[in-house]
Amino acid sequence: MLQKTFIHNKKVYLAYNHFRQGIFLELAPKDAESILYLLPWMLCVNEPAVPGYVPDMKRGMAVFGAATDLALISRESSFKRLFNIRKNGALLRPSTGVSFIQGLYTIGSVGTISQTAHSDCDIWVCIDKADFGEIALAHLLEKLHLIKDWMDANLKIPVYFFLCDLENIRNSNFGVTDKESSGSAQRNVLKEEFYRTAMLISGRIPLWWICFDPDHRIDYPCFSAEYALGAFADYDCIDMGPPASVDPDEYFGAALWQFNKSLTHPLKSVMKMLLLEMFLESPEENLLCLRFRNAILSQTQDFIFHDPSVFTLDAVFQYSRSVHPDKFEFIKQCAYLRYDLHFHAKKQTLKENLAKDIFQAYPLEREQIYRLNDFAGWPLSEHLSFGNHIFSLLLMIYKKIMTHRQDVISRITDRDMRIIGRKIAVCLERKPGKISMIHKPLSNPTLPTLLFVHDGKLWHVSVAGEPSKPVVSGTDLVFCIAYLVWNDLYVSSGGRMTPNPTPVTLQEINNLAKRIRDIFGVFDITGVDYDHCLEPGKMTKMLIVVNFDAPGLAKDIDDICVIYGNHWGELFSRRFGSPEQLRAFMDAGGGIFDRTSLHIYVQRNSLYYEKIIERVKNLVSRALSAPAV
Questions:
Q1: Which of 53, 84, 210, 433 could covalently link to 9 via disulfide, CB atoms 3.0 to 4.6 Å apart?
Q2: pLDDT for 419
């Protein structure tokens, strides 16, 4: 590569990165300012008043190039005022004998039209572990944890740090599955996503991004070797290795992981699942990150940059229109909602301007756009119908990807397979008494007013004004309440009840709903500890509801509802007509109820409140070794 080509590529990359930072700053001004400028500054200084202060740090640390970054230098006075630092002089200054962080990079939706109010910010903190001793590495981890604590308290956008060793990145080794990582299920897939979506916060430029010549094919190993020997007299880039072609086996693992994520983030996962399918169906195509980089660096003047999400969406649309023509209109709707667009609204943002061209090439009807703009206000039944449609699409894509699984040796570790498999089973597997999850397209839809109706035989809970479309029905009102709470559909202010002959009041429904939420929370598969997925199932909490439908004068225990949850994140509800039936159920459970935390609910207006609670405690004491609450 000629020196002038190298310089040109570097100039274009920095301009493109500035474009990405501009998107971030417009979509989340306060948070972007903290992440793009305050974060590298906090990592470079070690002052008691600054988040990230490590008292016993002997060897300093710094982000490469931060001390001479004019954007940071110009903001330091405001940073000092923020933390009430009165010390004169610069805290950010060049120093020797420090451990260098080679670069800070975002990966994913940040700084693209994919970024929404619900996006998080994943940041790779890249180091050469050879430059960090054991103590320095421990100090860096401590510093990152302290900074994250401050960001959690002061920023709206959730921030997650991933400490990455350069050698591991070069080898596409991203470890095992943890709370925010896909581990062995994605190796080269994750690296491809990084190169396609990464935004440089501070530090060195990924060398692969500069390795391009429109007239000649460049061998990356030779280019990186020349760069390391100083052939370009430049030290601002870092070798993270090239992206590698992705084996079908890895696409299987990535699809498995993405399908798992789709159970809680369906709209976000539709595009990613289609992308994986496209990759698998078109193995001869160049990696998308390669095509994207080439498109960016091919420009010579009057730079007009692509948003990586728009570039990716264009590829997905081209593929979907030919492969899924009957689903294409729905896929476009999913994309429109996923990117939180609002065409024809009074206020058009940068997102609408960036997405305008692609939705002119693949248009939606104007009436459809207005309807999608009001998506949050759709009736609950239509939300759930749309969610079921998304899930059917995801399941179709997943099954198609799985057809390529034959005769492929899996590189996914047994541990990761067990974790992913367990999480999918928790969401989809049917079991006696298990409360199923519903497929909500949005994690926080506008909750409607729910109407409780008893028709003489069954309880029906429906959205007010939609009696023909009950959300849940059954003879067991406790099960119906647990279903609503577990699926996060019920708030006490949104409940109503028609007159009926039962003694149940709306206040009692609200009381029980609150108790269920306080004990079990709501369904959240992401909150399940990964180690729990590797263990045999065991129940952790139990709520016994006695005589909920019975009058306050009832002294016999002849209506017992048991709600219980395990440490895999499943919730169950069973009903028994006598103490003997409950005792038989508990005895049949064997050791799964050992150390289960027991809670008891009896209507406060019961004349036998204390006696019933005491009888229930005695009844189940043989099966439980934990005290009742």
A1: 210
A2: 81
